[in-house]
Structure formats: structure tokens, C-alpha cells
């Protein structure tokens, strides 16, 4: 059924309110001039002098392995809160973090994972962190691409309450003529990304996982790098700019 001009206009207005830009990454071998100025999955090789070791450990003394190294300065889109950083490196343990009664569904940096940030003023050295092929992703460079319009997963994926009500009212008004995924939230990238919306598999926790902790990037299951977050899930990272602290949430199908 052809939609009326009025309905098309209202859909366009809602889409413009929702759409967020992001940088998404394609995992592939490609030519680059400087490996330091490329993002990587399954490889971390830059750190400060005092961080040189075979493997870092988390706050409980558990061994961590290299998951990803992101070079931020040349990304086509970056959340404002991260623009002070030049690199982010991420390490994970053999097992994904267990949720605790104290922390609930999220885990704090240093509890089963380690995230480090570096600015342009930091002096970094080469240190190829030791991998384990049993659970580390295969090492691949990540090609950054601009994704202009990322839309939220419907169920708790980051839409505010007023927008959800507006969409529901529109669906009720036009009954079978419109649905969120077919007409509004038509494009969501499930790849590794900075910005946009988190790729929740289960009913989500929104863009702010706790007060002040906002979604900024995710590392996803990756067929090319042979990395699987339990069952086709994603690791979603939330940053508190005022406190300079990180939290992580993951879910899966």
C-alpha cells in the first residue's frame, strides 16, 4: 500500500530525530602505510613503558589477552567524549566477566577485562602482547567507514520514552501501514563501531547504562576474525567522562 504524503513526512521527521552517525569497521586485510595508525582486532602492540609485559592482569590477578587496539585520530566519526584520546586498547580474560550482585548486569574496568586510554601526550612503546589462539580473535586490521544513520534496536536500545510514545501513537493511528523496523529503524550496524546505538540482543539497557555512563563503542562477534561473544553477541562499552571511568555490558542470543 502506498503511504500518504502526510505519513511519509511524519516518518521522515521521526527518523531524523533518531538517526545517529557512527564509525563502523570492516575486518579485512588491506594496504596501509603505518600499522600504528590502523585499528586492530586480536592484536595490541602499543603501551606505556611501565606497562610492558607478556600479558596484563586484571584487578583480581587474572591473565588478560589482547582483544583490540583502536587508533582514534583518523576515524570519520568519534563520540565527543573520546576526542581527547588517541588510542584505546582492550584486553579480555579467557572467560567473559561474571555479573555480580554488587555490580548487577555491568562489569567495571579491571574486573575480567582491562581498557586503557592514551592521549597524544603519552609516550608509547612497541610491545606485542602475547595471544592465545584458543580464544583470541585472529589478528586483522580494521578498515574504518562512516555510517551516517544508525538506528536503535526497538526494545530498550536507546530511544527515549517520548520518542517511543510518538512511534507507538503513529503505529496505532496508521495500524498496518507502518512498523518500526520496516519504516523507521531501517538501518542498524552490528559491526564493531564507535558511536551510533548499542547492538543489544536481549531487551537493552539504553544509551546510559548507569548515571553518567554513556555508550561510546562496541566490539562485536566477528566471523572473519573468528571471535564469538558467547552466541553472536557484542561487548558494549560505556564511558563516564566526568569520572574518567568505564563499564562494560555484554549480551548474546
* Total number of domains: 1
Point out poorly predicted stretches: none
- State the distance separating the first and last CA atoms: 34 Å
Q: Give the total of beta strands.
A: 14
* Helix-residue proportion: 10-25%
Q: CATH H-level name... which superfamily?
A: YwqG-like
How would a textbook summarize the main sheet?
12 strands, antiparallel
What integer value in Å does the Rg equal?
19 Å
User: Topology as H/E string?
Assistant: HEEEEEEEEEHHEEEEE
CATH level-two architecture:
Roll
Provide the CATH topology.
Answer: Hypothetical protein YwqG fold
- Given this structure, which CATH class is correct? Mainly Beta
Shape: elongated
**Structural class designation:** alpha+beta
Strand fraction equals: 25-35%
